[in-house]
Amino acid sequence: MADSIHVRAHLFISGRVQGVGFRAHTQREAERLGITGWVRNMPDGRVELVAEGETTQIDQLVDWCRSGPARAMVADVRVEREAPVGEPAFSIRYG
To answer: What's the pLDDT score for residue 35?
Structure first.
């Protein structure tokens, strides 16, 4: 098994995910997993989630998006990984 490394991931979540409820659930799950970053609604109806953590934590968050309590609202999760920038906490962004 490969070692887990610290990464930054952009998750673009589509489906019926707009609204405070999904963002708040996602924030709680990210904090539970020890992930930092932020989540916001996008104008095109998707939710953008920027998460920093170990690869295993990010994979767990992606799995949660696909199979967690809000799974019926999630149609797709697209993930783009990059180098971390040092997010200090996890927050909900508006606009």
So the answer is: 96
Q: Write down the pTM of the prediction.
A: 0.84
CA gap 95, 79 in Å, rounded: 21
Q: Is 18 exposed, middle or buried (0-12, 13-18, 19+ CB in 10 A)?
A: middle
pLDDT tens track for 63-87: 998 887 777 888 899 999 888 999 9
CATH class for the domain made up of 6-92: alpha beta
Residue ranges of the domains in the chain?
A: 6-92
Q: Which residues contact 37 (CB under 8 A, 6 or more apart)?
A: 8, 30, 49, 50, 51, 52, 87, 90
Instruction: Name the residue among 26, 1, 24 with its Cα closest to residue 11.
Output: 26
Alpha carbon distance 93, 1 (integer Å): 35
Query: Could you give the residue numbers annotated as active site?
Result: 23, 41
Tokens coding 60: 């767990």
